[in-house]
Each structure stands twice: as structure tokens, then as C-alpha cells.
């Protein structure tokens, strides 16, 4: 893999939800059974907000204005799963993830990117938090519930 093809170790996580806290989850094509909210690696020169907007369209077909996306001003740092480390420069083992959310009025089918995802689910927040693979995704769902119920993170 050439240097220009290597992934930047910075990404976004976008929680798509309804006011009733139904959460959109996508099942990755590889590996099957890996459920997640909408993720995106930042491309060179791209801001987290730009990546969040781009990936919403690419992976779900949802087009929202920049003002609809809530930037939590929160980052997570996590170890890159060994199965995907070959996509990054040698020695890169951690990723920085920026968290966003967007509310849509009600669950609706989304257009999946067939090269990345095979299925979609709308689940209540507690079930979604239990289904996602990533701890950062789980924690973001739990935090979303806290934020929308008026309780701040302790």
C-alpha cells in the first residue's frame, strides 16, 4: 500500500437517532455481525464536520445541513483493531475519534453503501448500546441518553 493510500488515524462517529432515542445501526460487510453507528475516517485536508457530513451521505443517503449535526466536542482515543492496522502507516496503533449526533424525526430506511454495510436496524438506545461492537460507540449511545434526558456526564 502506498503512503497516499494509508488511512489517517482520525475518524468520526455519527449517532443517527430519533427524538424517542431510536438509534440507527449498520452491520459491516466485513466482519459480519459487527454493528455500529455511522463511522468515517478523515481524508487528507478534511475536518471532522466535513467527514461526518460526507459519510452520512455515502453510507446512509441522509443529507443534513451542517447545523443539524451536533459536534459534541468530544474525542475518544482507542487502539486500532489488529485486523485493520495494515491500512495505516507502520507503527500506528491508535485512532482519535470525534463524536457527532444528528436527530431525524422518525426511523426510516436508509441507503446502504453495499461495499461497506449489509443491513440496518433501528433499535431503542439500550438495545443499540448492547449490540454495537465498539466501546466508544456504546459509551456515546449512553451519553446521548444522558444528554437528551438532561443529565450531564459525571
UniProtKB/TrEMBL annotation:
Q: Which CDD domains match?
A: NUDIX_DHNTPase_like (cd04664)
Q: Which residues are in the Nudix hydrolase domain?
A: 7-145
Which PROSITE patterns has this protein been placed in? NUDIX (PS51462)
Is Magnesium a UniProt keyword of this protein? yes
Q: Which domain of life is it from?
A: Bacteria
One of its GO biological process terms is:
folic acid biosynthetic process
Q: Binding residues for Mg(2+), per the UniProt record?
A: 55, 59, 116
Which positions bind substrate? 7, 28, 134
Question: What does the record give as cofactor?
Answer: Mg(2+)
**What Enzyme Commission number(s) appear in the record?**
3.6.1.67
Which GO-annotated molecular functions does the record name? Answer: dATP diphosphatase activity; dihydroneopterin triphosphate pyrophosphohydrolase activity; metal ion binding
Which UniProt keywords are listed? Answer: Hydrolase, Magnesium, Metal-binding
Q: What class of enzyme is it?
A: hydrolase
Give the cofactor note text: Binds 1 Mg(2+) ion per subunit.
Q: Which Pfam families match?
A: NUDIX
Q: This chain belongs to which protein, by name? A: Dihydroneopterin triphosphate diphosphatase
Q: Write the lineage as a comma-separated list.
A: Bacteria, Pseudomonadati, Pseudomonadota, Betaproteobacteria, Rhodocyclales
- Name of the gene: nudB
Amino acid at each position: 500500500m502506498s503512503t497516499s493510500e494509508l488511512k489517517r488515524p482520525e475518524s468520526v462517529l455519527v449517532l443517527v437517532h430519533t427524538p424517542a432515542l431510536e438509534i440507527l445501526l449498520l452491520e459491516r460487510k466485513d466482519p459480519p455481525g459487527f454493528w455500529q453507528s455511522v463511522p468515517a475516517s478523515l481524508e487528507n485536508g478534511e475536518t471532522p464536520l466535513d467527514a461526518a457530513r460526507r459519510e452520512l451521505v455515502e453510507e446512509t443517503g441522509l443529507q443534513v445541513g451542517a447545523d443539524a449535526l451536533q459536534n459534541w466536542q468530544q474525542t475518544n482515543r482507542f487502539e486500532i483493531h489488529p485486523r485493520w492496522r495494515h491500512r495505516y502507516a507502520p507503527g500506528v496503533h491508535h485512532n482519535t475519534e470525534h463524536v457527532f449526533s444528528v436527530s431525524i424525526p422518525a426511523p426510516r430506511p436508509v441507503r446502504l453503501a453495499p461495499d461497506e454495510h449489509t443491513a440496518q436496524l433501528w433499535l431503542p438506545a439500550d438495545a443499540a448500546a448492547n449490540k454495537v461492537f465498539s466501546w466508544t460507540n456504546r459509551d456515546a449511545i449512553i451519553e446521548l441518553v444522558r444528554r437528551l434526558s438532561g443529565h450531564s456526564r459525571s
